Amino acid sequence: MNKRDQELLEQAGVGDNWNKADWYSMSPKMIEKFADLIRADEREACAKVCEQTDEEFEGPDQWDWHSKDYAKAIRARGAND
User: Fold this and answer.
1) Which of 10, 37, 54, 81 could form an S-S bond across to 67 if both were Cys, CB 3.0 to 4.6 Å?
2) How far apart are alpha carbons 49 and 67 in whole angstroms?
3) What is the pTM assigned to this prediction?
4) Helix or strand or coil: residue 31?
5) Nearest to 51 by CA among 71, 22, 66
6) CA neighbor of 18 nearest in space, from 26, 10, 27, 30
7) For residues 27-40, b (16+ Cβ closer than 10 Å) or e, as one string?
8) Domain ranges within the chain, ordered by starting residue
9) In sequence order, which residues have a C-beta less than 8 Å from that of residue 14 and are 6 or more positions away?
10) What is the C-alpha separation between 62 and 28, in angstroms, rounded?
11) Does 80 have pLDDT greater than 70?
């Protein structure tokens, strides 16, 4: 488990004893919160890739518009959850 996963477990309510977490004793609410946090974290990572691509791509201006639009659309998905 990486450091980011550990942080998300703590945010989900597992506390700072994440390394002793017994998945069977976690409440369904904790597991759901952890899953929500993971999804949000992955959406943000994908949006950042789009933005980074926008900054690195040296092509037509049309790409700039699309990559920013893609990042915005990815982030908006979280608002619908």
Assistant:
1) 54
2) 9
3) 0.73
4) helix
5) 71
6) 10
7) eeebeebbeebeee
8) 3-79
9) 21, 26, 30, 34
10) 45
11) no
